[in-house]
TrEMBL record:
Stated name of the protein: 2-C-methyl-D-erythritol 4-phosphate cytidylyltransferase
Record-linked Gene3D superfamilies: Spore Coat Polysaccharide Biosynthesis Protein SpsA, Chain A (3.90.550.10)
NCBIfam families per record: ispD (TIGR00453)
HAMAP family (alphabetical): IspD
Annotated site location: Transition state stabilizer: R30, K37
Gene Ontology molecular functions: 2-C-methyl-D-erythritol 4-phosphate cytidylyltransferase activity
């Protein structure tokens, strides 16, 4: 394992501490048939372990809660036991729910007292660099209640009337690209705000920050990273393997 560490200071004793919740209970339907996505390997190591290390490599993170496939908690516990992880970090494993929102809520419910900053990070983003994790944590510690890493878009985006039968879709609008961002994880939160958002918003949404927006509270963006992309479709696996191989070469492995 690469001994990647960070400049961010760990929390002082008695100070607010940071926990990371990793939703990893998805099936990975868009990736194609196989094991649950988080348990598939990248460079011979389960994607989930890469994601756990990405969080635990931040010296500010002292607890990682893994939300496992409901029928896979024992397997995930064994995986965590079988891989080298930073000793300063504690780990919990809880079963996930039907959708991402349910799984994140299960992770939040499992958090012990004493963690005031909470990251929510997709297991499907295994290669997020530690500097991005630290930048999100710092922004929360500096007073933001919700922080998302994000990147400008390379493509022009159209809003359309979705087609039910695969036919041509009428274009409704072309939002100004300069004002759009593609949002990644980890998203960072003041814990009380995240708990309130999950207790309040019941409609299905695709990220946690949008739940905070629905409370009328401010969400801020910090720079994301190209390597924090989400492994969603088969081609993403090819890119992830290439990024990992380049890192290992640079690290002299
Ligand atoms: N019931 C669910 C669904 C998703 N996730 C997690 O949410 C993250 C982002 O979801 P996505 O990339 O969409 O993963 P899947 O739901 O597995 O993908 P798909 O939609 O292709 O099945 C993943 O780490 C996934 O494991 C989860 O914990 N519980
Ligand atoms: C949370 C997220 O990764 C931010 O981009 C994304 O919304 C998850 O979407 P998914 O369809 O559940 O993968």
């Amino acid at each position: 394992m690469s001994d990647e560490t960070t400049q961010a200071p760990p929390s002082a004793p008695g100070a607010a501490r940071t926990a990371a919740v990793i939703p990893a209970a998805g099936r990975g339907v868009r990736l194609g048939p196989g094991a649950p996505k988080a348990l598939r390997t990248l460079g011979g190591t389960p994607m989930l372990i890469h994601a756990v290390r990405a969080m635990a490599n931040s010296r500010a993170v002292s607890l990682v809660v893994v939300v496992a496939p409901a029928d896979g908690t024992a397997e995930v516990k064994s995986l965590l036991d079988a891989h080298t992880l930073p000793e300063r970090t504690d780990f919990l494993v809880v079963p996930g729910g039907e959708n991402r929102q349910d799984s994140v809520r299960a992770g939040i419910d499992a958090l012990p007292p004493g963690y005031d900053t909470v990251l929510v990070h997709d297991a499907a983003r295994p290669l997020v660099p530690v500097d991005t994790v630290d930048a999100v944590i710092e922004a929360v510690r500096d007073g933001a209640v919700a922080v998302v890493p994000a990147l400008p878009l390379a493509d022009t985006v159209k809003e359309v009337e979705p087609s039910a039968d695969g036919g041509p879709e009428p274009v409704l609008a072309t939002p100004a690209r300069a004002r759009l961002r593609a949002v990644q994880t980890p998203q960072g939160f003041d814990r009380a705000t995240l708990v309130r958002a999950h207790a309040t918003v019941t409609e299905n949404v695709t990220d946690d920050a949008s739940m905070v927006e629905q409370l009328g509270l401010p969400v801020v963006v910090v720079p994301g990273h190209e390597e924090a992309f989400k492994v969603t479709r088969p081609l993403d696996l090819v890119l992830a393997e290439a990024v990992l191989a380049r890192r290992r070469k640079n690290d002299g492995f």
